Amino acid sequence: MTLAGGIVVFFISWFLVLFMVLPWGNKTHAESGEEQVPGTADSAPVKPRIWTKFAVTTLIAAAIFGIVWWVLYMQFFDLRAYFQNY
Question: Most C-beta atoms within 10 A of its C-beta, which of 2, 19, 30, 46?
Answer without folding.
Answer: 46
